Amino acid sequence: MTSPPRSTRNSAHTPKPSAYAPTPTSKKPAPTLNIPEAMRERMLTAGALSGPNKIVVPPYVFSERGGKSMVSLMYLGSDVCGHQGIVHGGLLATLLDEGFARCCFPAMPNKVGVTANLNIDYRAPALVNNYFALRAETVRQEGRKAWVEGRIETLPEDGSEPVVLVEAKALFIEPKQAAVSDVPCSLEPFNGSVPPISSPGGGASGEC
């Protein structure tokens, strides 16, 4: 996996991940690295869309305990364009879908769900070869349902305000069979001998 360009990586403006944690008690893995490599290669964001000039390194994720909120920091390269020099809106939608799922699943009774609805408002172009922050918050949870709101924004430099690029709201529903399934869809690191049946997100995105 290739790191962001050296000129960016060594810049005084390179974001410091710890500054974006939602609370002091948050954990901060690069979750996709916990997925077996053979599975990762078949996944969309962790496989096909990862690598040089794409999703350059695994996003750095802070997840507040209990599924309350999450911040994911990422660097998107030059080969994920729709219009030249602008990150494809479909990729932003996919990142929101997976990020929102990662945020709310710990709040679910069986820690799993699928996307029932995802509404997106695009606010400004996301320029490639830049760092971005995805912020998500579980605003409501009732039984097998969780509602999540959030956004993708630029990362501030020199104290400037971030620019909101896209905002979204989503509803996730835990499948009725999740309580009895031996192999649930899961966002948590997998340590067993049987691989989980899919990656995060799902529903409309076909991940689960």
Can you walk me through this structure?
This protein is an alpha+beta fold. 14% of the residues lie in helices and 26% in strands. It has 4 helices and 6 strands; from the N terminus they run αααββαββββ. Strand 4 and strand 5 form a beta hairpin. It starts with 5 loop residues before the first helix and ends in a 35-residue tail after the last strand.
Secondary structure: elements and pairs:
Elements: H1 6-9, H2 37-40, H3 44-48, E1 60-63, E2 69-76, H4 89-104, E3 114-122, E4 130-142, E5 145-154, E6 164-173
Antiparallel strand pairs: 1-2, 2-4, 3-6, 4-5, 5-6
* Largest sheet data: 6 strands, antiparallel
Please report the total strand number as a whole number. Answer: 6
Q: Please give the CATH class.
A: Alpha Beta
Category by helix and strand content: alpha+beta
Q: TL;DR?
A:
This protein has 208 residues and is α+β, with helices and mostly antiparallel strands.
Kindly list the characteristics that best describe this protein:
208 residues, alpha+beta, Thiol Ester Dehydrase, Chain A, six-stranded antiparallel sheet, 4 helices, 6 strands, 26% strand, globular, disordered C terminus
